[in-house]
Amino acid sequence: MSNERYLVVGAGPGVSFETAVRMAEQGAHVALIGRTEQRLVELTDDLHARAPHAPRAMWAAADAAEPDSLSAAIHDVTAQMGAPTIAHFNVSEWIPGGPLDVTAEQVAHGLMSGCIAGLVMAQAVAPAMLDAGIGTILFTGGGSADKPMNASTALGLQKAALRNLALALDKAWRPKGIHVAMVMVNGSIKPGSALDPGLIADSFCMLAAQTAGEASAWQSMLEM
After folding, report:
1. How crowded is residue 176: how many other Cβ atoms within 10 Å of its Cβ?
2. Which among 54, 69, 58, 47 has a CA at the least distance from the CA of 113?
3. Which residue, among 130, 146, 131, has the nearest Cα to 180 in the 3D structure?
4. What backbone torsions phi and psi does residue 209 show, to the nearest 5 degrees?
5. Helix H or strand E encompassing 66
6. Cβ-contact 94, 155 below 8 angstroms
7. Fewer CB under 10 Å: which end of the chain, C or N?
8. Is 82 left (phi over 0), alpha (psi -120 to 50) or beta?
């Protein structure tokens, strides 16, 4: 993966970090986009400690709920690193409340950050991938897309919309060489469990590796 450039939107200490570590260990350049500068600095330092021989990761802060902010951050890291060859959308916004409790404004905000931002990312990275005829776009999905939780109606709507987006992009771009894939995480992510962040990261890396093969063999959905 020495020629790969991995971008993650929604960088955090769990799945996205473990995926970034694995990418870096294989020689990929890594760029992290998240909301908080201090967290990004800490993640970059931790990433370097885990993968000391990898190229130094870069980062940019952005609010996924603000398309202009996210687009600017992607442009910033692309200018430094080059066009991403692997882009990973890992944003979820937990908004408490069942269908009679959550407000329309809260749902709209959650959809903006948890789904529409994924479209913003895809639209930003796809032109270079389409020109090259190859690229990978990954999404972190969730079981609430199929099994809504009373505790957060908004999260289920985000994940259902995000899955639809991933399938739509796969249909549109697979014939053009872009591998779009989602890992459906059906439960709570917990170290040492079947949904350990490292195991989920392994799945993302496996999906990314598929891109080098025949498009007919690509997986678009992986259940965990």
Report:
1. 13
2. 69
3. 130
4. -65, -30
5. none
6. yes
7. C
8. left
The rounded distance, in Å, linking the Cα atoms of 186 and 213 is 27
Q: What are the structural domains, with CATH classification, of the chain?
A: 5-223 (3.40.50.720)
Neighbours of 201 (CB within 10 A): 21
- Give the tokens for residue 220: 């678009």
CB-based contacts of 131: which residues, under 8 Å, 6+ apart? none
Q: Which residue is associated with the tokens 């894939």?
A: 181
Would you give per-residue pLDDT tens digits along the chain (224 residues)?
Answer: 668 999 999 999 999 999 999 999 999 999 999 999 999 999 999 999 999 999 999 999 999 999 999 999 999 999 999 999 999 999 998 899 999 999 999 999 999 999 999 999 999 999 999 999 999 999 999 988 888 888 888 899 999 999 999 999 999 999 999 999 999 998 889 899 999 999 999 999 999 999 999 999 999 999 99
Query: What span, in angstroms and rounded, lies between the C-alpha atoms of 90 and 84?
Result: 15
